[in-house]
Structures are given as structure tokens and as C-alpha cells.
């Protein structure tokens, strides 16, 4: 069997059949069908999508993870599921690595984690709860990179993702007539204060971080009513988990102070937290050696720093002794990840699969 065309066929299937987080039923069924065709044992679950599979023999376990969910977005005027983050490519590359390895004589077990709901930031936790990391010493992930990070043909041994989290808030004040503002408690004044406050948060300029309002809803159709109530949301990001903790504390304190200053109620909750990367030097060096072995020193890129987030890093947060790294695959990807018309050079799929296979062998 020629592996490269098979990898491309897998990609084409998953690209044409995207499913959003926690609803990847047909995707899971297709993955099980592929594994069954090669008589590779796998385990599915009654309560969540995704599956685990293993090849090889031995006491040691090395694992690789592929995320399987798509985004929900408008594409060509139609709102639909869409693989604009490249998880279809991730599945194809991991399946390709499996094909390259399945007939090898392996002295360890290699576990394949096909994980749901990365886009919701908690699919990795579901796999951990279902035994994905049992006995695992080394874990690898893989992801296509935008062209501004890596060109086609280059592969990086690690991606240093940042941390991300959302805050959802509600302001409860008192409506007032536009001619009598003193009788109310204006929620828009509070929103303005929140905006000014988050722009005044400063840490070291050598640290990468941001906090910004991404959603505001206040007022109705009557323009002579000062709204007392409003809802808002923040997108908060940091390149390190330490700065993320400081950001959250500063924002909590600031919102409480604003509520007291304006004598108004503000309720908020943090949601969809994703930790920053905790990359193992050992795993990164193994991946680096594999890249050099497969595509040469000239195509081996340094680790990639990106402000994006990925729930892959919950695996190391929950199991700190785990040696983990996510490989970045250059593919001339444009206009960008999550863009509805995202496209890339599909020859990158076989490169990624071969590098992954070699990384797993060397671990």
C-alpha cells in the first residue's frame, strides 16, 4: 500500500465530513473503521466521542494525540461545521504515522489518542479521565502552522502555545430616563470603566499577554433610556501560566473595585481555560533529532512561539512528569488558522506523518 495517497484520502474524507466538539460521532466511527481494517485494537466510549488505539508490545508506552473536532462558522454565506483549524490534517498525519509504524518491530507500545473537543478546551481532560495517559512516559502532538510562522517543508520540534481563558460578566444596575441620569445606575459607565481598567494592567514588557473586551450587550430600542443592565465578555491571554494567574487575580480585584466604586452589582465567571505549553526539553530534543533524520538539518526549524492556545497542554498539567512536545508542521497555510477559507500545501501531510513516526520510534 502506498502510504502518501492513503494519508491524502484520509484527509479528504475528514475535511468533507466535519463535526463540532462532542458531536464527532461519525468521525469516531470512521476512525474505528480504519483501525479495524488493519486489525488494530482500539477502545471507544459510551459517554464521549473519540477513541484510543495501540500498536506494539512492551512495558513502556509512548503516545501521540490527534484532535478531531471542527469549528462552527460561516463559510460562503452558510453557517456550518468547518475544519479551518486543521484537525482534519492532524488526524491524517497521525493515521499516516500509524501506517508507517504498524509493520515495524516495536519494543514498546505506541498509543494513539484521537481526542474530541479541543476547540472547547476540555476534550483532553475527558481522555485523561478515561485512561489515555496510563503508563505513558512521552506524548507528542502535531499541528499545521500558519505561513508567517513556518513555510512549507520546515518542521519545528515544539510549539510554545500561550494560555487563554474567557470571562463572562453581567452588570446589574438601575435604568433611568435620559433626562434624569441621577436616578439610575448606568451600566455603560461601568463598561467604560472596565475597558479603561483592563488597558491599565501592566506587567513586564518582556512578557506577552493581553486582556480585551470581546462582547458588550446593553440597552434596547428606546434611545431615551439609560440602561442599568449589561453583559460583557473578556478574552484573556498570556504566554506563560504564571502571568495568566496574575492577570486573573488583577482582573478579579479590579472588577470588585469597580462594582464598589459605582455602587452596582457585577457578577462574573471564568470559563474555557487552556494552559500555556509546558514543553519537555527531552521530548523536544527527540523530535528535533527525528526531524533532522527525516528531512535534514536545513529543514529543521527552531521551536515556534505562538499566542494561540491548545488543550494539549492539559496532559502535562495533569501529569507533570510526562515528557511532551507538539510538533509544528510548515505547510504554507493561509490566510490563517480559523479563517473559513484556510488552505495549505497538502504535501505537508506526508512530511508530518513521517516525522511523527520517526519521533515515536526514537522515544
UniProtKB/TrEMBL annotation:
Pfam families: M20_dimer (PF07687), Peptidase_M20 (PF01546)
Stored InterPro entries: Amidohydrolase (IPR017439), Bact_exopeptidase_dim_dom (IPR036264), Peptidase_M20 (IPR002933), Peptidase_M20_dimer (IPR011650)
Protein name per the record: Amidohydrolase
Residues in Peptidase M20 dimerisation domain copies: 170-258
